Predict the 3D structure of the following.
Amino acid sequence: MAEETSDMAELTLREASANPSPRLEWVLVGLGILALLAAPFFVYPIFLMKMLCFALFACAFNLLLGYTGLLSFGHATFFGGAAYFTAHAVKVWGWPPEAGILLGMAGAALLGLVMGFFAIRRQGIYFAMITLALSQMFFFFCVQAPFTQGEDGIQGVPRGVLFGVLDLNAPMNIYYFVLAVVLAGVFAIWRIVNSPFGMILRSIRENENRAISLGYSVASYKLGAFVMSAALAGLAGSLKAIVFQFATLTDVTWQMSGEVILMTLLGGIGTMVGPIIGASLVVGLENTLATSGFPVTIATGLIFMVCVLVFRRGIVGEVYARVLGRAGKG
Amino acid sequence: MTMIFGIPVQALLGQLLVGLINGSFYAMLSLGLAVIFGLLRVINFAHGAQYMLGAFVGYLLFTHLGIGYWPALILAPLIVGLFGVVVERLALSRLYDTDPLYGLLFTFGLALVLEGIFRYYYGVSGNPYAVPPLLAGGTNLGFMFLPIYRGWVVVASLVVCFGTWALIEKTRLGSYLRAATENPRLVQAFGVNVPLLLTLTYGLGSALAGLAGILAAPIYQVSPLMGSDLIIVVFAVVVVGGMGSILGAIVTGYMLGLAEGLTKVFYPEASNLVVFVIMAIVLLVRPAGLFGRDA
């Protein structure tokens, strides 16, 4: 299995140290945030919020794939599971939205702890298959459990009043709330990636055996990364439940797990902004296709195939590679 | 009526038969996955879609050309196998020196496209495919009623599984395959055309999925979604069995099918969870899988 882990290096561009121009990057990030602040005056806010939720979901997923080298095929469990927990807490128990979201996150973290505990026992391709199988198990659980209300899902979830002061039913209020939470989430991921903990995660990605021989308890680091990724994916799912006011089976299907992989792959595995761009493109594309009658699965499948064959580094990864003038490997 | 553990024997045997049928398909599909993975190091996510393709080829041959079950039993695997050859030549062969995860992601995309195409043209509802007249009806075994076609599927899958096993373990071609699994470069140096071997292997694996599909067509409805749900269970089977051994894949497939059948008798609510639960237990006790060689 040593071969497999060292191969993982190919999966990602070694990004951090080779940053082309950090100042330009901060300017771009600033412009991006300004654009997001102004966006609801020009674009339909619900669509923007959907984009933001999926952007956070993809960034959380990328924490695991891009920075730890673990391909999870079961992240829908955390996204959709958290959506159910939040929806149930807010609607049935009458919790305020902030408490509901925290509960969703905690639930997702717990699910991540369980799934991660089993999945980290195997590596590479087996890891992907185990996470897929366990998330399918969770899907069947959601189909049968009474609190998810089966095919109907939990509908009519009230948005509520944030901290008892901010009424989330006003479109602008909820938009800026979602934007703030997503930015905070992405910032948290950025901090994790660039912390000593994140450095150890990267060393596991690059060469797991060496990390073991240096005395790191690789299993606990992997599990830690898995739980964090699950919790943040859950945060995205909880937000989505509040925004759209429902939680359904769609969000726990394997197709949803595939979708977040696509977003990350398309944008650029192991880059900070890649998953955000990938998520925006995929959500935008789905919105366009929804009205055209062309089946979404064919489009997403084709993008998958083209990405894998032609640009494995993703859009942002390719841009970095060009700017750096490195032909790169793979 | 005779009872065992408070369950009528007939119901028990009936569910065991259903389990054996499901197990036959698990065995055939996990066998194909193991053959492909053994040589190509690719997890063929499109295996479920190719199974669905096999069933649809049979269905379309009948509805459009009037070609019946028996010729379809040859033609469907052949067509799906050729399709596999094309996919391997055009795409998978370009991915061998990258991380194995890319093979998984590519075939995942392929599965989505295939499923999407058939969904677009044929909807999600199943299409019936008639049992061939020769195998219609059933026979009373004295202790239970056995539909002949189901008996045929069990026999056919056993023949296919052990035929494939013999092909790989007992023939010259099989010895090339096994050698190329161990050390492709050395085998190439001995003058064996390894790229051709890889193409043929993917073709063979796909053909096995297509054959399973046409065998399944008269039992389950021919539907675009028939493959995707099955493939995830088959992945769990593969994790339990470990992909190191052909025989292991076959035995695990049948065992888990039977376990599922038994669960349906005693605790029906858990019947679609039991394979995953067994997978989790095996991961705790024996992380490399029951027949796995890597750890």
